[in-house]
Amino acid sequence: MKPNLKASFAGAVAAIALIGSAANAAEWRGWNIHVEGYPNTVAMDKFAELVEEKTGGEISLQMFHGGTLGSQPDAIEQVRLGGLEIGNFNLGPIGPIAAEANVVSLPFIFKDVPHMFRVLNGEGGEMIAKGMEAKGLIPLAWYDAGARSFYNGAKPINAPEDVAGMKVRVMNNDLYSGMIAELGGNPSPMAFAEVYQALKTGVVDGAENNWPSYESTGHFEVAGYYSLSQHLIIPECVCINADAYNALSDEQKAAVKEAAMESAELQQQLWAEREATSRKMVEEAGVVTNEIADKGPFQEAMVPVYEAYLEANADLRPLVELIQATE
Ligand code: GTR
């Protein structure tokens, strides 16, 4: 039988078109540590939706929430190496990888959240982003994570003496271990997912976090004293694997960046609401909150933490000074 040349030609064209569209279509996977309904979860879902919409379906992003793809330090490595493309990361566990990003983990470096955003949206943010990019992570937009304060199950904390002798969970970062040690406590670096059990069984006496995480994790059920030390104000990023980003066309880059910025706007709005509702919720559940009248002694105790950071990163003194000089 004579082969139908016309039909096989059409078939080949169709096959080539299919291969072509497959080569241009990217399917990304994204990591997020938080539960459903958390501001970051909602905003990352929005990001995924916007990426797809703004790239006309050329890029799709499947989000994995609740830390199901691993702990945060592991996920950061995954995104750096390209095993995952996207992550909503706290800059805390990025600090040990990119020294520039570690500047935000110096206790009390930011006066408040608006101060943090002024720094991030200026030259300081550019320096931090550059440092991260050199390590394979590009921050597309910044999320709000409020201020972190201490909590424990035994007593209100008003002075460094109250932390002395306490075992306190911290995120994986030597700056935080130094911070607790300078207050006289015993730092216990641990993954987020393990903290509830550790508090419950007395493996640690306390931890530190913002209102929404204190509430969403149930930590307030097992550590009912929340003391407003507000010692850390750490931003979060929508971060992308640098190679994945650099492989995009200019139009795609712009679309992805825009999607991240819009998701950040939503996150910041939801964050402000959630901070208030989380606080109300835990206080109604019986949590005892205290303001700290004088944070001076906590700040003074941090001098060696700053000295150690600057000794290890002399070239970053201008960044620290830039932040301190930012109004
Ligand atoms: C939360 C933050 C998480 C994670 C967590 C922790 O506030 O959003 O990314 O860093 O704290 O304490 O591990």
Explained architecture:
The chain is globular, with a radius of gyration of 23 Å. Mean pLDDT is 94; it is low at 9-23. The chain has helices at residues 5-24, 39-54, 72-81, 113-120, 123-133, 160-163, 174-182, 195-201, 211-216, 219-222, 242-246, 250-284, 296-300, 303-312, 317-325, and strands at residues 26-31, 59-64, 86-90, 137-143, 148-152, 167-170, 186-189, 206-209, 225-232, 236-241, 288-291. Strand 1 (26-31), helix 2 (39-54) and strand 2 form a beta-alpha-beta unit. Helix content is 49%, strand content 18%. The protein has two domains: 26-145 and 235-277, D-Maltodextrin-Binding Protein, domain 2, CATH 3.40.190; 148-233 and 278-325, D-Maltodextrin-Binding Protein, domain 2 (3-Layer(aba) Sandwich), CATH 3.40.190. With 327 residues, it is of the alpha/beta class. Strands 2-1-3-10-4 form a five-stranded mixed beta sheet, sandwiched between helices. It contains 15 helices and eleven strands. Beta-D-galactopyranuronic acid is lined by residues 33, 72, 90, 92, 145, 171, 192, 209-210, 213, 236.
